[in-house]
Amino acid sequence: MITYPWQKELMEKLLRSRETLPHALILKGRSGTGKLDFANRLAQSLLCESPHENGEACDACQACSWFANGLHPDFRSIEPEIDVSDSGRKSNRITIDPIRSLAEFTNMTTHRNGYRIILIHPADAMNLPAANALLKTLEEPPGKTLFILVTARPNQLLPTVMSRCHALAMPFPKPVEGEAWLREKGITNPAPFLAEAGHAPLAALELASEDSSLKNRFLNEIGSSSLDPIAVAEAFQKTELSLVLRWLQKWCHDLASFAFSGKIRYFPDLSDRIRAVSAKTDKIELARFQRKLCDAQRVSGHPVNARLFIEEMILTYRALTESK
Ligand SMILES: [Zn+2]
């Protein structure tokens, strides 16, 4: 595990004050910029028993080896639980049980006489009882304990939880730095991927590694003047639904953004098509449709008839983009 170049300054600053850190940090910032990796690296570095001069973990001591294997006794990571009854799919909520079980963990003396660290990711996934249980712990923080909450949606956290934590806005790279980093990773033409990922480098790397032929086919279809909803539903019914919805969300974002500001964020390579479709689009209906897509994204993990679902979406989309 490494610290990304755009995070180094913040990492070193935190590690310089390792003895006087607040008892709870919130790492907030956009998705795909490496917040979770940073949180893990910070935790490992604080638990490491022979850190480098800059404070980062040595990756060689007993504590680092435990950490790398998920076995460090003074570290807990809390994420939405995996629902074993349903093909291992992750649920999207953090419930009260894992938060409650922290009481036992924080009441024990630490095994290695250093920090005890609890990482919660994504912190906005805590439901209300879980957040209230955490709040109780934060109100009477146990000694030598650090909570690290990671979130891309800090406004979904309880204000009372926010106010008990020290919030840090996570850095992300300038476009040129992001491009240089992606080139180092072997991506020869990083600019369009960075644009599509909203300049989040890890998200761009994921996009670049995906098979883009499916996505291009989909965009080609919905940008076409002879769009056939039934054919699109037929062709993409086996594609992961959240992926199809994400493409459509980004496309609609570009249609709206082009209409209002002339800017295209995700698909600058398709500006001609976006311009043509945007000109025929009912903007109010588009805004309504975008809200519908957000709702749909939230339930896309639930079993639905994908073919009918896509067909209905594309029918609505076609109606609003052929309004003029
Ligand atoms: Zn170490």
Which helices and strands occur, and which strands form pairs?
Blueprint: H1 8-16, E1 24-28, H2 35-47, H3 62-68, E2 75-78, H4 96-100, H5 102-107, E3 116-120, H6 128-139, E4 145-151, H7 159-163, E5 166-169, H8 175-184, H9 191-196, H10 201-209, H11 212-222, H12 229-236, H13 241-261, H14 271-279, H15 283-299, H16 306-321
Parallel strand pairs: 1-4, 1-5, 2-3, 3-4
Helix pairs in contact: 11-13, 12-16, 13-14, 13-15, 15-16
The site of zinc ion has 9 residues, from helix 3.
User: What share of residues are in beta strands?
Assistant: 5-15%
By DSSP, the count of extended strands is: 5
**Percentage of residues in helical conformation:** 40-55%
Q: Which CATH architecture of the largest domain is right? A: 3-Layer(aba) Sandwich
Summarize model confidence as the mean pLDDT: 90
The bound ligands are: zinc ion
Explain how this protein is built:
This protein has 324 residues and is of the alpha/beta class. It has helices spanning 8-16, 35-47, 62-68, 96-100, 102-107, 128-139, 159-163, 175-184, 191-196, 201-209, 212-222, 229-236, 241-261, 271-279, 283-299, 306-321, and strands at residues 24-28, 75-78, 116-120, 145-151, 166-169. It folds into 3 domains: 5-172, 3-Layer(aba) Sandwich (Rossmann fold); 173-210; 211-321, Zinc Finger, Delta Prime, domain 3, CATH 1.20.272. The protein contains 16 helices and 5 strands. Strands 2-3-4-1-5 form a 5-stranded parallel β-sheet, with helices on one face. Helix 6 (128-139) links the parallel strand 3 (116-120) and strand 4 (145-151). Helix 11 (212-222) packs across helix 13 (241-261) and helix 12 (229-236) runs antiparallel to helix 16. Zinc ion is lined by residues 48-50, 57-58, 60-61, 63-64.
